[in-house]
Amino acid sequence: MQRRASTLVALLVATAPLIGGCAADPDPRPEPSGPRAVVLAEHPVALESDQQDTVVWPIWGGAFTPDEVTLRGRLEPGGEGASGLVIAGPGDPEARVTVELVAADGAWSVRETDGSTVLQEEPLADGTTGELVLDITADSVTVAAGGDETTLELAGPLAADGEAAGLYAYLEPGATLDLLELELSQPLPRHPELGTPLRELAAGKGIDIGSALDIWPPLHDIGFESMLGEQFSSATPTELYWATTRGEDEDYFFVPADLSMNYATVHDLSVTAMFLVWDFELPQWVLDIAATGDAETLGAVYDDHITTLVSRYRDQADAWVVVNEGIWGPFDTGESEARLAQTIWQDVLGDEHIERAFRVADEADPDAVLMYNETGAEVLGDKADFLYDMVSDFMERDVPIDAVGLQFHIDSANPPDLESARQNMQRFADLGLDVYITELDVMIYGTTDDQLELQAEIYADVVDACLQVSACKNTTVFGFSDRYSWDELGEAAPLMFTEDYVAKPAFPAVQEALR
């Protein structure tokens, strides 16, 4: 693999206003004023892409407002295509203003685009193997390198007042890019008006409070990036689905997952990675193998996928959802009893495919928490009983399972019996398993005061149920802002913050439950 001399980058750019929220107990801690790590020197990020198209992916934690901010860092481009760093303004990727600092065949250039067309481009001096300094305002970029200065007067403003720009990794097909260190002088906004962060309260109770990390389409969002690290102690990156990590061309693609893991590392978040095995959005080439009934070939793909992902993130993922939703209950089938779900894995690899997944994952990382995750099994009942019997059998036969995940997607019109849920969690704990609440959200019908208060009560009661079971180690919400709630919920407003990051009553209710 071809490598270039590392390049020190320092970018001068600016400050952002705080995101609003509803009042809570005041947090007396001062606003952060020191630099903000985006990539830690002790944890560099090695990116590579064999995708057919150029990849421009947000470096989570790298959003800022462009006015007198300094970014210091080191980049090492390589491979067969151009790679580098992009500073992008807000808006549609096909139309937003971007400034791209890229290297190809050892030659660096800086260019402005409108998202699809290069508007201007200037080569940089040979001295770019040393230090680069970029002075960035909304209207111009000056690059100092090798004793020379190159200035681009931008055709359009990078961002309007109060709007954020973001840092992105740029990789053309066949390119590599090592992010050796990145640091912004502008700290992420904090939200003292929200009171004590959830992560601090949860730590006092001996549990983690987490959120899914899922922005689609992938755009920088300073509100999301600031709140995730401030409020939560664990993250669940969703960029580990088959659809993201291994698409139709069969090549692995890790840029999204690598950058999600990096955010978790920088912000000291534990990671629950999902999902290794799930019968959802599988690439056609996998479905084609399954259609042949060739268990040997499909099994090899199955094992390779699990081993590759778990091995790659062995030092970063604390827990894995090894198998997701492998059981159908009476509600799913209309039958009288629960049974294993009819998936391609079940059809071709047989009943033992779930056990097989856990054994393969354990070989790749014996220290990770390995979890089975299910929906509709939160309370006592047929599906929960089937799950209990399955994991009991696993425990008796030393199948390496460590935890059960219960999703808790809740319809406020039909909330679960939380005493039944507590008893259910306790019986899994009695087997010696940990319990995780993995995908909590509460859909409501309109945002009237009554609906918001009902939502708050349910959120708090679920957290309280977890706290009553000593083996319940983590409560994770499936996102925290309605801006990014999962699509099927539509206007259900299921999360603790509005689309504009204003806290709903559910947020202080969860704070109170954690006190």
From TrEMBL:
Coiled coil: none
SMART domains named in the record: Glyco_10
PROSITE patterns named among the record's database cross-references: GH10_1, GH10_2, PROKAR_LIPOPROTEIN
Matching Gene3D superfamilies: Glycosidases
Documented EC number(s): 3.2.1.8
GH10 domain: residues covered: 213-513
Broad enzyme group: hydrolase
Pfam families documented for this protein: Glyco_hydro_10 (PF00331)
Family (UniProt): Belongs to the glycosyl hydrolase 10 (cellulase F) family.
Protein name: endo-1,4-beta-xylanase
Species per Swiss-Prot/TrEMBL record: Lysobacter korlensis
